[in-house]
């Protein structure tokens, strides 16, 4: 019972972050399941099963608050579903011994990317209003979907920064569109895991606990996306993901580091994480207040036909 409550709280926290930042539900939840001893394929399958419900709720909430561009959802979501199905079937064929360190390395890379991306660069908006093309969204969806299924997360960490980096959509619509399109990715990945694994190793109780926490957080996260500083949240989440997966790797069979090495590594990560948070807070305070969106801005198309 205690485990289920902790998972529900983890799902709530992960969805708050994901719904307001456009990433990290899968990465955070999968990292926690791996730390609890679940094998990689089953962890990713459990998280994606829960995400079918959380992404549906999150997409509906973002739509209600006007955060969704449906053309972008279709153009990145369908290719993302193809990539997710392929990634799920690929991960299902790997042995647990081979998959666990590989997944931790992938999650570590995604965590580093999130940490550096938001701490150093923030959110570019220089090309706001320019169209996003199919030839950009299609390949991005396939790659992000594949990484999402194989890493237990990656749709947001790959898709959200890539679109934000273009500066062509306002952040709230990037986040809302990525969260909404993730429903297609979650369904496709779940079907891929069912094809590759059956129900073996998938803990339905854990999936339901993650789902319940996510459902509670989804509407609040969609509202918070207009108020929470994404730069600070990105630095906080990125550091947490890095710390957790470094811990998994250092304790795993690949490295089997001693206590002195482990605690030295943790100390260095904590120091870098704290510095990143301080920098993000300072840069957020120095940044000029964003221009309020006008009715004309809301009506402007963000994707070409």
UniProtKB/TrEMBL annotation:
Taxonomy, superkingdom: Bacteria
Statement: the UniProt record of this protein carries the keyword Cell membrane: yes
InterPro entries the UniProt entry points to: TM_pro_TauE-like, TSUP/Inactive_protease-like
Compartments in which it is found: Cell membrane; Membrane
Residues annotated as transmembrane: 72-91, 103-120, 140-164, 176-198, 204-225, 232-250, 262-281
One GO cellular component term: plasma membrane
Membrane topology according to the record: Multi-pass membrane protein
Signal peptide: none
Main localization of the protein described in the UniProt heading: membrane
Protein keywords: Cell membrane, Membrane, Transmembrane, Transmembrane helix
Keyword Kinase: no
Record-stated family: Belongs to the 4-toluene sulfonate uptake permease (TSUP) (TC 2.A.102) family.
Protein name: Probable membrane transporter protein
Organism: Streptomyces reniochalinae
């Amino acid at each position: 019972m205690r485990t289920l409550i902790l998972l529900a709280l983890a799902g709530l926290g992960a969805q708050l972050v994901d719904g307001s930042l456009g990433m990290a539900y899968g990465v955070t939840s999968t990292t926690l399941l791996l730390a609890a001893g679940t094998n990689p394929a089953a962890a990713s399958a459990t998280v994606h099963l829960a995400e079918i419900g959380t992404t549906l709720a999150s997409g509906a909430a973002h739509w209600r608050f006007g955060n969704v561009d449906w053309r972008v959802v279709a153009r990145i979501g369908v290719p993302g579903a193809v990539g997710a199905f392929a990634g799920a079937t690929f991960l299902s064929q790997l042995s647990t011994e081979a998959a666990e360190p590989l997944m931790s390395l992938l999650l570590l890379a995604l965590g580093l990317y999130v940490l550096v991306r938001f701490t150093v660069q923030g959110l570019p908006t220089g090309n706001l209003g320019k169209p996003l093309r199919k030839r950009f969204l299609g390949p991005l969806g396939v790659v992000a979907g594949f990484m999402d299924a194989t890493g237990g997360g990656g749709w947001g960490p790959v898709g959200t920064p890539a679109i934000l980096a273009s500066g062509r959509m306002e952040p709230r619509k990037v986040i809302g569109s990525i969260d909404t399109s993730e429903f297609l990715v979650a369904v496709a990945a779940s079907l891929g895991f069912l094809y590759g694994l059956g129900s073996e190793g998938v803990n339905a109780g854990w999936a339901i606990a993650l789902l319940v926490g996510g459902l509670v957080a989804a509407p609040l996260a969609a509202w918070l996306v207009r108020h929470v500083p994404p730069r600070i949240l990105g630095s906080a989440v990125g550091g947490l993901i890095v710390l957790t997966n470094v811990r998994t790797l250092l304790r795993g069979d690949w490295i089997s580091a001693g206590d002195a090495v482990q605690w030295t590594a943790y100390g260095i990560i904590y120091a870098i994480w704290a510095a990143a948070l301080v920098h993000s807070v300072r840069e957020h305070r120095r940044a000029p207040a964003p221009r309020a969106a006008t009715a004309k801005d809301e009506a402007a198309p963000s994707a070409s036909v």
